[in-house]
Amino acid sequence: MPPFTVLHVCMGNICRSPMAERLLVIAMRERLDRLSPVTAAPARAAAVEELLHSHSAGTGGWHAGEEMNPPAARQVIARGGDVDGFAARKLRSDQIDAADLVLTATADQQEYVVALRPDAAARTFVLGEFGRLLPAVDVAALPPASATPDEVYARGVALVAAVAAVRAEASPQPGDDLDDPWGRGDHTFARVADEIEETVGALGAALLP
Q1: How would residue 37 be classed by pLDDT, with cut points 50, 70 and 90?
Q2: What is the pLDDT of residues 105-114, one digit of tens each?
Q3: Which end of the chain is more exposed for a tag (fewer CB within 10 A), N or C?
């Protein structure tokens, strides 16, 4: 049921998955900006929350309760987002159960998610894989697009199923994995954030064209 829920997964939940969580929110907010440019910012933020729940977790729990890694936070803020209220957490099975789409940073993490919840296999993708397969989907065949919770949810669920169908005819690619930027410089974080932004931006555009 609405809102359409996207769960982002990486290792420690302080770098890649938090950036993906917040960058997807930015992408959806930008779609709403184009649809309703005169709407006040607080109203747009509330509208995004009604349409989309973007959250994240890590396969390991050693950073639980920590803030986003500072260079990751800088990338989110520089791209127009915020890091308020973020706290790292370990992935739980119920989070997977509640997700309409699970995007992992690497293939190993995808396997971890599916091992926890085999029935989530069809809605669990490496983020780079999802972005690579998305252009092959005929978005015109999806349910109608509108900035309402029910229609975004229906379109999102159909989109995930369509990408899964494309994946059945494709092979995994090593380049689908996101590099782990932890302990590296801002340049690496910026490159990884660019890769994330490309995919979540395309997802936002598919949900609200």
Answers
A1: low
A2: 999 999 999 9
A3: N
Number of residues assigned to the chain: 209
Domain range for 9 is: 4-207
Within 8 A by CB and 6+ apart from 91, the residues are 9, 13, 57, 58, 59, 112, 113, 116
CA distance 30 to 184: 29
Give me the amino acid identity at 198.
E
- 8: phi > 0 → left, psi -120 to 50 → alpha, else beta; which? beta
Strand partners of residue 52: 4
What is the full DSSP assignment across 135-204? GGS-GGGSSPP-SSHHHHHHHHHHHHHHHHHHHTTS---GGGSPP--TTS-HHHHHHHHHHHHHHHHHHH
Number of structural domains in the chain: 1
Q: Report how far Cα 22 is from the mean position of its chain's Cα atoms.
A: 8
According to the model, what pLDDT value does residue 46 have?
Answer: 62
Encoded tokens for 92? 């739980």
Provide the pLDDT for residue 151: 95
Total Cβ atoms within 10 A of residue 179: 14
pTM here is 0.95
List the CATH number of the domain containing 116: 3.40.50.2300
